[in-house]
Amino acid sequence: MREPYDTFEPERVRARAGAKALLARYNRTGDEERTHRGSILRDLFGRIGPGAWIEPPFFCDYGSNLEVGESFYANTGCVVLDCDVVEIGARVKLGPAVQLLAVSHPLDATQRALGLEYGERITIGDDVWIGGGAIVLGGVTIGDRAVVGAGSVVTRDVPSDTVVAGNPTRPIRALAAVA
Fold first, then answer.
1. C-alpha to C-alpha distances, 143 to 83, 159, 160, nearest whole angstrom
2. Tens of pLDDT along 125-147?
3. Is 36 a catalytic residue?
4. What pTM was computed for the model?
5. Do residues 93 and 54 touch, judged by C-beta distance below 8 A?
6. CA gap 116, 8 in Å, rounded
7. CB 66 within 8 Å of CB 46
8. Rounded to the nearest 5°, which phi and psi values hold at 100?
9. Contact between residue 99 and residue 79 where contact means Cβ atoms under 8 Å apart
10. Which of 5, 74, 123, 134 lies 20 to 30 Å from 98, alpha-carbon distance?
């Protein structure tokens, strides 16, 4: 866990406002505007690999903390609260309404009342599939080729080549590792 910070620090407020402006433009685009969408995402994200595609609407806090690999796909309605780095590997697929929440709040009510929060990194390996409506909390690493069942809440690391599901997630079965 990182040290808590004030969400209303002027530079954080400006950064979120800039991201919201880019997202408003992105979410108004039509399917025929692929080139324009790509340009907006390159301005918004910390890194975006070739062939990445995100169906609008899409929402994030900063964008600059979001790194996605080649051929990444996010279905409609995904939310990424990127208060810390969210690193997503190549060929990852997100179902509709997936939430990646790299933010948390102090347990102490006095600190929360001050507007404090903190970020926790999320790392998602290559060739991962996260089913619709799943939620991934900060501090989680999901290994290569893992599958997260729809509607799951991921609170702990997921090993490579594993299917997990539930709230909180639990291993369902191992997948055959690719040589």
1. 21, 5, 4
2. 999 999 999 999 999 999 999 99
3. no
4. 0.95
5. no
6. 9
7. yes
8. -110, 110
9. yes
10. 5
Kindly state the helix (H) or strand (E) to which residue 12 belongs, with its residue range. Answer: helix 10-27
- Asked if omega into 50 is within 30° of 0 (cis), the reply is no
Q: Count the residues in the chain.
A: 179
Provide the 3-class DSSP secondary structure of residue 34: helix
Q: What is the pLDDT of residues 103-131, one digit of tens each?
A: 999 999 998 899 899 999 999 999 999 99
DSSP state of 65: T
Q: Which backbone phi and psi does 27 adopt, to 5 degrees?
A: -70, -10
- The owner of tokens 């209303």 is 8
User: 86-88 and 66-68 as β-strands: parallel, antiparallel, unpaired?
Assistant: parallel
Q: List the catalytic residue out of 12, 20, 93, 105.
A: 105
Q: Which two tokens stand for residue 138?
A: 């900060």
3-state secondary structure of 67: strand
